[in-house]
Amino acid sequence: MKTKPAELQNTTRRIEKDPKPNDPELGPLKLLPGKWANVPNLQGRGWNMIALPFVAPPPQGVPFPLNYRLLVNQYNEELEFTLVDKAVPNRGVRLSPGTPANTDQFLVTLDYQQSIKQIAADDFPKSGLAGPAGAAIHHEPGLWLHMTNGMTDSLNIARLASIPHGDSVLALGQSSEHPGRPSIPDINGLPIGVDQDLKNPYLAPYKHFNDNLFQGLFNPISPNDLLEEANKGIEIERTTVLDVDSTHPTGGVVNIPFIVRQANATVMKSTFWIQELKEKDKDGKPKLRLQYSQLVMLDFFPRVDGLPPSCCPGLIQWPHVSINTLEKVC
């Protein structure tokens, strides 16, 4: 069921610090304000996988040197929503006869800060670059937007993200809500443009972690399995879904020149599942959890699947996957 757009009683723009949860003017974003974290009760539920350009000697059983390594991380995260900007006006006119001339759009935006520190990391082939426990591996300031009116193709939400590596993202999408637990789709973690049979020597890093699950849990072939596992035994009464995709028209990813040349980020898709639990907090309100699955496609190296360029032009697309299960802590 689609969420209803927020109704702004006041269309004067205003910025509010420390936004309050359940503010109806936030629409589908109303449960986000505050801090979400893995600590103390959901430690180590964050997982990351990324393929990176790297020249390595042939691993055992591989007849040629590899030109990439597969890095996997287990992490803890803090995701904080700190400020709301209401009734952000986009001015417009419609000159068709018999319609109102002024067609202003009003947005509600929610600032966020994401910070991630790894608990453990490993890569294959071994590079010596995976980093120690406690290392900061991600920082991201951004905005969630809710379009209260003037929507196009039912797109009522957007996510703006800026990544210190030199990437900026605009992803657009839709929100929905439904009773019960979320339906979490499978994700294929294997690169596109490669023969995906794990017997293919070029996929030796993926086979390594498929045969030797990272931390005994994470499988790069089907990473979202851990989100499903985290929901076992949890009574979820209602789920709000925020689903955004940079491939929608007018969305996209832009990067600094080095990124474009070496490992170009071209697509970002993410789904957030905000869960209201049957279990209550100290105030008698439903406890809140947040799960997400994010997929970023990195394009580098010519395709090696044997298909002709006329059929499938371009480079190999490498899935960069991040998943986590957090809880509302304040």
Q: Which percent band covers the strand fraction?
A: over 45%
Total count of strands: 13
Rg to the nearest angstrom? Answer: 21 Å
Give the overall pLDDT as a whole number: 94
* SSE sequence, one letter per element: EEEEEEEEHHEEHEEE
The biggest beta sheet reads: 13 strands, antiparallel
Shape: globular
- Give the class from helix and strand content and strand pairing: mainly beta
Contiguous helical run count: 3
What is the rounded distance between the termini?
28 Å
- Give the helix proportion (percent range): under 10%
Low-confidence stretches: none
Structure description:
This protein has 330 residues and is mainly β. It is 6% helix and 48% strand. The chain has three helices and 13 strands. Strands 1, 2, 3, 4, 5, 6, 7, 8, 9, 10, 11, 12 and 13 form a 13-stranded antiparallel β-sheet that branches. A hairpin with a 5-residue loop joins strand 11 (264-280) and strand 12 (286-302). It is globular, with a radius of gyration of 21 Å. The mean pLDDT is 94.
What's this, in brief?
The protein has 330 residues and is mainly beta. Helices cover 6% and strands 48% of the residues. The chain is built from 3 helices and 13 strands, in the order E-E-E-E-E-E-E-E-H-H-E-E-H-E-E-E.
Write the SSE topology:
Blueprint: E1 14-17, E2 34-37, E3 46-56, E4 66-90, E5 105-124, E6 136-147, E7 157-163, E8 167-179, H1 204-211, H2 225-230, E9 236-245, E10 252-255, H3 257-262, E11 264-280, E12 286-302, E13 315-328
Antiparallel strand pairs: 1-4, 2-4, 2-13, 3-4, 3-13, 4-5, 5-6, 6-7, 7-8, 8-9, 8-10, 9-11, 11-12, 12-13
